[in-house]
Structure prediction request, 197 residues.
Amino acid sequence: MPQITPAQQPPVRCALPHLKRIAADEQAIAQEELNQYVAEQAEAIAPTIDPLTSRDRRIIGEIIEVDPQSIRTIWIEAGITVWVQLVDGGRLAFGRDWFATRVQEVKANLPETPSERNERLSEELETACQKYGLTHGEIDWLSFSTTLYFNRQRVGFVGCNLQRQWYSRISQLGGSRTAVDIDAAIAQLGIRQAVAA
Prediction:
């Protein structure tokens, strides 16, 4: 009887080709479950809610001399070490006291962007409107000015100039009077805060 060498043997075919397909499908399902689990764990450890404002990123970027957009997040470990996580996955560690001192120095010298200025002024305006029972019209964001209303009656106009002074005027074309803060500007319009009885 002639002998058949391994090279001459016909290939063995799987009698059940669907088993290979089932195994591949199970592998894909298992991999998807693993990916989902890893994503859930990453979310639990570092949620996607971004606590840093653009100003925070600018301050941190100034301190560690990197592009502010390359900063993902920051946290303090054991009350001693400040960690800065970068977008590319890198991490930098700093002493808490040194970092806090540098933050104060940079904050004192870092100018506001127009957007940051508008956010700050908008918060001041909203607080004052609630305090005095006022509403305001649409804000002109370029000059930061708006119309104030009390019970749907126009009472005047307020705004903040580039010298960081609030101003007010009673009529659209009237002269403006500057004030030390928004409360004083509103008082110049004859509006007083209600006194609780």
Helices lie at 17-45, 54-64, 96-109, 114-132, 182-187.
